[in-house]
Design brief:
Strand order of the largest sheet: 3-4-6-5
Mean pLDDT: 86
Number of domains: 2
Number of strands: 6
Shape: elongated
CATH topology of the largest domain: Topoisomerase I, Chain A, domain 4
Low-confidence stretches: none
Distance between the termini: 44 Å
Radius of gyration: 22 Å
CATH architecture of the largest domain: Orthogonal Bundle
Largest sheet: 4 strands, antiparallel
CATH class of the largest domain: Mainly Alpha
Number of helices: 4
Structural class: alpha+beta
Length: 177
């Protein structure tokens, strides 16, 4: 029975990882997540932008980086440009304004494919974990216990598949906007 609880934790972890990966994918909605891990030079060290200042959203398609040290402002702008993500970064006084272009149909299709690939990789990991638990269930001596645990296993798998599908559909909806 412990193996079903362990599988639940494993599934939660896999779902969390997938959501983390999906959140890094750009949609038409600006999100700080897109640029926060870009490394900028600061006193001969490379630090992610999220450690150099605050990142805020300025609707409809801008991000604004407000560095804590104004001396790093040009380094942040250069790092964003050098990341080659298709964004334009401009220094406006004491902030860096990042303009995100609208997604093209071709890019939407590519992002759609990437999202579906991430979901499929997560499903594969879930299947491997499920198969391991299924082997443990088959080693049970009592047939009634074996049957009940297989039913619980299937309910667990169905529940996580529906959560996974919901996350994927949500992300695909964001990309389509």
């Amino acid at each position: 029975m412990d193996y079903l609880e362990d599988l639940d934790k494993t599934f939660q972890g896999l779902l969390g990882q997938m959501k983390e990966e999906l959140s890094a994918i750009r949609t038409n909605r600006p999100t700080p997540r897109i640029i926060e891990d870009i490394e900028a030079s600061y006193f001969d060290e490379s630090l992610p932008i999220k450690q150099l200042g605050t990142i805020s959203v300025e609707l409809p398609n801008n991000l604004v980086v407000t560095p804590w040290d104004k001396g790093v402002i040009n380094s942040i702008a250069k790092a964003i440009e050098d990341a080659k993500l298709g964004f334009t970064a401009s220094v406006a006084g004491t902030v860096v304004r990042v303009t995100l272009p609208q997604l093209t149909d071709e890019r939407r299709k590519e992002l759609d494919r990437i999202v579906r690939n991430i979901a499929e990789q997560t499903r594969i990991k879930m299947r491997v974990a499920r198969d391991e638990v299924n082997k443990q269930i088959n080693q049970e001596a009592d047939e009634d216990t074996k049957f009940r645990n297989k039913e619980r296993l299937q309910k667990l798998v169905d529940s996580f598949n529906s959560k996974l599908d919901g996350s994927v559909e949500s992300k695909l909806g964001e990309i389509a906007q």
